[in-house]
Design goal:
InterPro entries: 4Fe4S_Fe-S-bd, 4Fe4S_Fe_S_CS, DUF362, PSI_iron-sulfur_center
Pfam families: DUF362 (PF04015), Fer4_10 (PF13237)
Number of strands: 16
Number of helices: 16
Largest sheet: 10 strands, mixed
Radius of gyration: 20 Å
CATH topology of the largest domain: Rossmann fold
Strand content: 15-25%
Protein name: DUF362 domain-containing protein
CATH class of the largest domain: Alpha Beta
Helix content: 25-40%
Number of domains: 2
Keywords: 4Fe-4S, Iron, Iron-sulfur, Metal-binding
C-alpha cells in the first residue's frame, strides 16, 4: 500500500513550516529514512516562471527552506534546481525567493543547463535527455506546487518532474505527443517512473485554481502532502480538492494502465482526512476536449467544436512575443505587434498560456465541448 501523509499548515511562517514538515514526515520515518550522510540530494521545486511567491506559480521559498534544512540535518548535501519555462534558473529563483533561501542555507543552485541521454529511455519516448544534476544526484526530492494545468488538468507530483527535461527539449516532447493528451500523459508517467524520486512533498498551503499553471488564482488550501509514490500523492491531492480521477490526465491514464497508486484504493492516507482540509470552493481547469466516444475521423473534422484552443486577450497582451518564441509547433507569429494563432497547426498544449507573463492567453471552448459540459459528458 502506498502511504501518503496529509498535514495542516495554515501559512508560510518559517518556524511553522519546519515544524509541520517534521510532523508530516514522521509516519514515513522522517528525512533520515531517505537521506544518508554525505549524499547529494537534488530538491526539485516548481520554478515555472519569474513570479513573486504570493502568485502561487512556484513552490514557496519557505517550504524549500524547510526541506533544505531537513536534508542538511540528516547529513545530506542539498542542491536545488529546475528548468523554468521562461528565463534562466537563477533569474527565476531570484524572483520567486528561492535563490535567497539557497544562499542563506548554504545549499547549492543547480541550473539544469547541461543534460545527457537517459541510459534506457522509456518506451513512450523516441529519445530522452535529462538534466545532469538529476542523473548525478544520489536521490531526488520532488517538491511540486499544487496547481491546475490547462492541458493535463492538474500539475502535482507527476507533472512537476517534467522540469528535469532541459529547456527547449520540452517543446520537442510536446511535438512528439502532438494533440494526443493521452500520449503526453503516458510520457509523463514514464518519466516519473524512470526518475523515481525518493519523496514527493507538495506545497498546497496556497494552491492555484482556474487558468493554471501560470495564470490562475491563488486559493488557500492550508495543507502539505508527502509520499514516496508520485501517483499516490496525486491521487491524494485530487481527493483533497474534491476532483475526480478524470480531472487529471496522468491519473486517468494511470488508472487505465492499472498502475499502483492510480486510485485511492491503492493508497493509505495518514494524518488529517482530506475532506477536513478541502477548500470550500475550488475552480478546476477548463475542460479541453470531449470524453464521450467520438470516432477519430469525425473528431478531426470537428476539432474546433469538440476541443478548447487558445485565444488572445488583446487588452492584456503587450506583444512581448514569448508565446511565439516558445510555441512547440510554431503555430504563432507576431502580426502588428500582436500574436496570431494558426489554429490549424495548434496542438492545444497551452504552452503559450502557461508562459504568458500577463495572462493574455485565454481558453476558448468549442460549441460541442461547452454543450458536453452542460450535459455532464465532457472531461
Amino acid at each position: 500500500m502506498n502511504r501518503v501523509v496529509l498535514h495542516a499548515l495554515p501559512d508560510y511562517d518559517r518556524a511553522g513550516c519546519e515544524a509541520a514538515l517534521q510532523t508530516l514526515l514522521e509516519p514515513l520515518g522522517g528525512m533520515k529514512a531517505y537521506v544518508q550522510a554525505g549524499q547529494r540530494v537534488l530538491i526539485k521545486p516548481n520554478m515555472l516562471a519569474a513570479k513573486a511567491p504570493e502568485k502561487a506559480v512556484t513552490t514557496h521559498p519557505e517550504i524549500v527552506r524547510a526541506v533544505i534544512r531537513a536534508v542538511q540535518q540528516a547529513g545530506g548535501e542539498a542542491w536545488v534546481g529546475d528548468s523554468p519555462g521562461v528565463g534562466s534558473c537563477r533569474q527565476v529563483a531570484r524572483k520567486c525567493g528561492i535563490l535567497a533561501v539557497v544562499e542563506e542555507t548554504g545549499a547549492r543552485l543547480a541550473p539544469f543547463v547541461d543534460c545527457r541521454p537517459a541510459s534506457s529511455p522509456p518506451a513512450s519516448f523516441q529519445h530522452l535527455e535529462i538534466a545532469c544534476e538529476v542523473l548525478d544526484a544520489d536521490l531526488v526530492i520532488n517538491l511540486p506546487k499544487l496547481k491546475t494545468h490547462q492541458m493535463m488538468g492538474l500539475t502535482c507530483a507527476v507533472k512537476n518532474l517534467f522540469g528535469a527535461v532541459v529547456g527547449m527539449r520540452k517543446p520537442q516532447l510536446h511535438l512528439q505527443a502532438g494533440s494526443d493528451k493521452a500520449l503526453f500523459a503516458r510520457m509523463l508517467l514514464d518519466l516519473a517512473d524512470h526518475l523515481k524520486p525518493a519523496l514527493s512533498i507538495v506545497d498546497a498551503v496556497v494552491a492555484m485554481e482556474g487558468d493554471g499553471p501560470g495564470s490562475g488564482d491563488p486559493v488557500a488550501v492550508g495543507t502539505l502532502l508527502a509520499g514516496e509514490s508520485p501517483l499516490a500523492v496525486d491521487a491524494a491531492a485530487l481527493e483533497l480538492l474534491g476532483l475526480r480521477t478524470e480531472d487529471c490526465w496522468t491519473q486517468k491514464i494511470a488508472r487505465e494502465q492499472e498502475l499502483p497508486g492510480a486510485t485511492l484504493k491503492d493508497v493509505e492516507l495518514v494524518g488529517a482526512a482530506p475532506a477536513s482540509l478541502r477548500p470550500q470552493h475550488f475552480r478546476p481547469a477548463k475542460a479541453t476536449d470531449v470524453s464521450f466516444g467520438v470516432p477519430a475521423f469525425l473528431h478531426q473534422r470537428l476539432r474546433r467544436s469538440l476541443s478548447a484552443l487558445p485565444a488572445l486577450d488583446a487588452n492584456c497582451c503587450t506583444g512581448c512575443g514569448l508565446c511565439v518564441e516558445h510555441c512547440p509547433p510554431q503555430a504563432m507569429a507576431l502580426q502588428n505587434h500582436r500574436p496570431h494563432i494558426d489554429l490549424n497547426r495548434c496542438i492545444g498544449c497551452f504552452c503559450c498560456q502557461e508562459l504568458c507573463p500577463r495572462g493574455a492567453i485565454l481558453t476558448r471552448q468549442g460549441l460541442l465541448l461547452r454543450l458536453s459540459r452542460f450535459f455532464g459528458l465532457g472531461r
